[in-house]
Amino acid sequence: MTESYLERGPADDVSRETSSVEVSAVSRETSSGEPTDVSRETSAVDDHAYDTPIAREAAQAVHVLNVRQEQWPKPPAPRILTVANQKGGVGKTTSTVNIAAALALHGLRVLVIDLDPQGNASTALGIEHGVGTPSVYDVLLGGRPLREVTSQAEFTPTLSCVPATLDLAGADIELTSQVAREYRLQRAVNEYLDGFSPADDAVPPDYILIDCPPSLGLLTLNALVAAREVLIPIQCEYYALEGLAQLLNTVELVKAHLNPRLAVSTVLLTMYDSRTKLADQVAAEVRDHFGDLVLTPVIPRNVRVSEAPGFGQTVMTYDAGSRGAIGYLQAAHEIAVSGNRQER
Ligand SMILES: Nc1ncnc2c1ncn2[C@@H]1O[C@H](COP(=O)(O)OP(=O)(O)O)[C@@H](O)[C@H]1O
Ligand SMILES: [Mg+2]
Predict the structure, then answer these.
(1) Residue from 323, 276, 270, 281 nearest 15 by CA
(2) Confidence at residue 60, expressed as pLDDT on a 0 to 100 scale
(3) Class of domain 73-341 (CATH, top level)
(4) What is the pTM of this model?
(5) Index of the ligand 1 atom closest to the CA of residue 96
């Protein structure tokens, strides 16, 4: 077997996962056009190291936690991705925080903006978000600078988060009567990025990931207007494609009227269960429809993923050897090395 975790197919193919892993040298184009040698970050591991499940998991954890301190390529300019799907429970928040963590663990600076009143992304990143905490609500409705409400995640200094509190629950309605109501977040993000002058030592984030609530209201609109790219997580389940037309239509409307630079750049298949035929059917249908925009790795259904937020963690640190962590590692890597697919 001469594949790396980063080059493999569906992440939950258990028979392949348990097989030994070694790495062939693979050169890929980075978003900046520079080749990156993926082989180094997954340097050869002795076949015999995988004789037991514990050894296998330990070896996987080495990759996820980036013990070898590999750097993934930095995008030429900050990439702003909105993670959207108006259906609840499809993996928006889970994908946001785990992709953010994977990128941050590989030397990239990442800012997560939690735009869901539930504050699940804030929880998963261990960020305080009780009512009264300075949050994205103050940015959208109080004109407060993003920088003032940003907190650093505990586990890595390159990952920070703008929390959402329950105050945000009324924001959709409160925003309705405001001037430039769809542009509030865009302005805040632009000001934030402009605030990093070459003169001071502060460095802007390489990635901004915005976690949306399960609706197409003004909060999601703000996210779509602030972003360049849309990442759509699709759960490999019944009715997966239902409502997608409405989301795509909204993206087109935003593009036509509010933010011409917006494009769907990435589709991620989540909660894939290889034991069901249905998951394969959904995956095939999504790949048929979205083609190259669909990331090659799929995220397996894995209980460790759902346990992690209960400990204020992403699965990347909660159980770095789990299949879920490997799935998100692979997905984030593909995002990082392939750049904005719409622009290629
Ligand atoms: N790959 C996965 N395996 C198992 N459970 C998952 C996985 N992805 C998400 N979940 C769980 O499914 C639920 C919905 O996911 P979430 O990311 O909160 O969706 P959304 O943000 O779209 O509402 C959560 O309880 C989460 O822990
Ligand atoms: Mg969510």
Answers:
(1) 323
(2) 79
(3) alpha beta
(4) 0.86
(5) 17
